[in-house]
Amino acid sequence: xxxxxxxxxxxxxxxxxxxxxxxxxxxxxxxxxxxxxxxxxxxxxxxxxxxxxxxxxxxxxxxxxxxxxxxxxxxxxxxxxxxxxxxxxxxxxxxxxxxxxxxxxxxxxxxxxxxxxxxxxxxxxxxxxxxxxxxxxxxxxxxxxxxxxxxxxxxxxxxxxxxxxxxxxxxxxxxxxxxxxxxxx
Length: 185
Fold this sequence. Notes:
Blueprint: E1 2-7, H1 13-26, E2 31-36, E3 57-62, E4 76-79, H2 87-99, E5 103-109, H3 121-127, E6 130-133, E7 136-137, E8 144-145, E9 147-150, E10 167-170, H4 172-183
Parallel strand pairs: 1-5, 1-6, 2-3, 2-4, 4-5
Antiparallel strand pairs: 7-8, 9-10
């Protein structure tokens, strides 16, 4: 089974993933938490939550091109920041795992800061048995946020790993206004 937690930054995707992980641990499953090694943030979630300590849990930081399905011993796989993994490798790995009856829960951005579909997430949404679209709160007008606005220049790359110093949650209206000011259109 594949479950996908998606939405913009600061919407609770990783918190949802941690709830799934805790549920699997409570059921006594052998679990692995996988995160790309390119994400070096200290805390797991933006609100300071971290992983539980449990003898049935292993944490693995891997190269984004790593085949997660090479980790054979687990029953439950929690993959954080899935959009940063190489699309072909992570999709193939997840298909292999769910084909073997493993439980997989992932969290990742559905859109990049430019408003474009992000990495492997659109494909995983199609493969998932369950999709949870999280939304946060626009830090400008307090409406529900569906976009992530980047305060740094992304002209050379649409990927910049960061937190609340670089990114802000926005509703579509506020995001569109800021994007048009940034691009001059």
